[in-house]
Specification:
Blueprint (H helix, E strand, L loop, with lengths): L13 E5 L4 H12 L3 E6 L2 H18 L6 E5 L5 H11 L5 E4 L15 H29 L2 E8 L10 H21 L4 E8 L6 H5 L13 E5 L3 H10 L4 E6 L2 H10 L4 E4 L5 H6 L7 E4 L4 H13 L4 E5 L3 H7 L6 E3 L1 H13 L4 E7 L4 E7 L23 E8 L2 E4 L11 E6 L5 H8 L7
Parallel strand pairs: 1-2, 1-4, 2-3, 4-5, 5-6, 7-8, 7-10, 8-9, 10-11, 11-12
Antiparallel strand pairs: 13-14, 14-17, 15-16, 15-17
């Protein structure tokens, strides 16, 4: 007997979840298990069911459950034999069924659809769920209770966001669900439809890129291109405020990112794939970021994104020699981790109250931010217009930050105590002179 122990709200109940190896199906299966239910998890990919079983086993061990609460069935839901095995695994009791599994043919118009693709999409998205529902209905009707949830999509109500077969199958699923509720609602069987938007880490998302294309609210999207932890950390920091998409070539990495991030859309593919960028409305993207560890890949994908209409393009370039070559052209901002690291180190080794320092032109020059301390008696800069300050050769003041307000430096701008002064030094050998210039005299202390 493998009924789930404990006092979870679904303890003692059995639920069938198709598409349990990924996306919504996986999340639903794990949640039901954690709430005490026995779950029959169905998926076409055995390796994904193995991952699900590993996660469920870890939960059982942590909770002290003596037996497994997951029964897996690997198979194609479009096949009658799979439906039979699923019902057999339920062992005479089905309290709920979630039809999540689905496939998609891409953004294919009616004139281009072939018989095989049409039949395959209909078999998985419509015929398979119908057969499984038909098989479990007698158990639910006999018990006088039961819940059936069919997962559709926005293509169930909008004919412009997906291909012909997928759109037809999801529209049909809506009508079938309504008919199901009409006939069997009075017998205690609830039938509901969940129209989900785009979801990452699914069979659809991995095989058909256009699941995320079309008019899916992509205005104002930020599009990071992953570079292992950099893209993950950035997406995690901004996904609550912006629409974020990550393009990743590695399927395993895609699955990891989709499990880790909350609302970021994960796309499997190449950032240099012109068709993919166009499908994902790159022309509407506010920012495109290339964050891989391959300089050439970052440069080429950034140039392509800019040519296709991205408003601003930023990329990481690990070779400092490339930075000056590409920045200021089609690439708006080139970031050198090496130079940024040098800047962080400079902040700590420079004298005076220098709060930040950045190496420029491969270390030949520097930009520094220094705080002006003292008063007109103890400081060589406070109370003086910039035009009257004797700066070291090759040194200019670019801006002054005062109470969070940025002031463009003019000869008439007067430096005040507490100002953050931004200086540019063409020759870094004069750094010490700048440090001495901004050091307050002893009378200040």
């Amino acid at each position: 007997m493998d009924q789930a122990p404990g006092n979870g709200r679904f303890a003692g109940r059995t639920y069938i979840v198709t598409g349990a190896g990924s996306g919504i199906g996986r999340a639903a299966a794990l949640r039901l298990i954690h709430e005490g239910a026995v779950v029959v998890g169905v998926d076409i990919a055995p390796d994904r069911l193995d991952e699900l079983a590993d996660d469920e086993l870890a939960h059982d061990v942590a909770e002290g459950f003596p037996v497994s609460t997951l029964r897996t069935v690997a198979g194609d839901i479009a096949l009658r034999e799979t439906v039979e095995r699923v019902v057999e695994a339920a062992r005479g009791r089905v309290d709920g069924l979630a039809n999540v599994a689905g496939v998609m043919e891409g953004f294919v118009p009616p004139v281009a659809i072939d018989d095989h693709v049409w039949e395959r999409v209909m078999d998985v998205n419509l015929t398979g769920p119908m057969r499984l529902i038909r098989a479990v209905l007698p158990l639910m009707v006999r018990a006088g209770t039961g819940s059936i949830v069919n997962v559709a999509s926005d293509a169930s109500f909008d004919a412009t966001v997906a291909g012909a077969a997928y759109t037809a199958s999801k529209h049909a699923l809506v009508g079938y669900t309504r008919n199901l509720a009409f006939f069997h609602g009075p017998q205690g069987v609830r039938a509901n439809l969940l129209a989900a938007g785009p979801v990452s880490r699914t069979t659809i998302a991995e095989s058909i890129r256009s699941e995320f294309s079309g008019r899916r609210g992509c205005e104002g999207v930020r599009v990071p291109v992953p570079g292992e932890p950099e893209a993950e950390r950035l997406a995690e920091a901004i996904e609550s405020r912006y629409q974020v998409k990550i393009i990743e070539m590695n399927p395993a990495r895609c699955r990891y990112l989709s499990d880790t991030l909350d609302s970021t859309v994960i796309l499997q593919g190449s950032a240099s794939d012109r068709d993919l960028l166009i499908e994902e409305n790159i022309s509407d993207a506010d920012v495109f970021l290339a964050l891989t560890n391959d300089d050439e890949a970052n440069i080429m994908s950034s140039l392509l994104a800019k040519r296709l209409g991205a408003r601003k393009v930023m990329c990481i370039i690990n070779n400092p020699a490339y930075v000056d070559l590409v920045q200021g052209g089609d690439i708006d901002i080139a970031i050198s981790p090496q130079l940024a690291t040098i800047g962080t180190l400079l902040t700590h080794v420079r004298r005076g109250d220098i709060v930040s320092a950045h190496s420029l032109r491969r270390g030949a020059a520097e930009a520094i931010e220094v705080i002006a301390h003292g008063d007109v008696r103890s400081s060589k800069v406070i109370g003086r217009p910039i035009g009257n300050i004797v700066l070291p050769p090759g040194t200019t003041i670019g801006a002054v930050i005062r109470d969070e307000q940025v002031l463009i430096a003019h000869d008439s701008t007067v430096i005040e105590s507490g100002d953050h002064v931004i200086l540019f030094l063409v020759d870094k050998k004069h750094i010490r002179d700048v440090e001495r210039l901004f050091q307050a005299g002893l009378t200040f202390f």
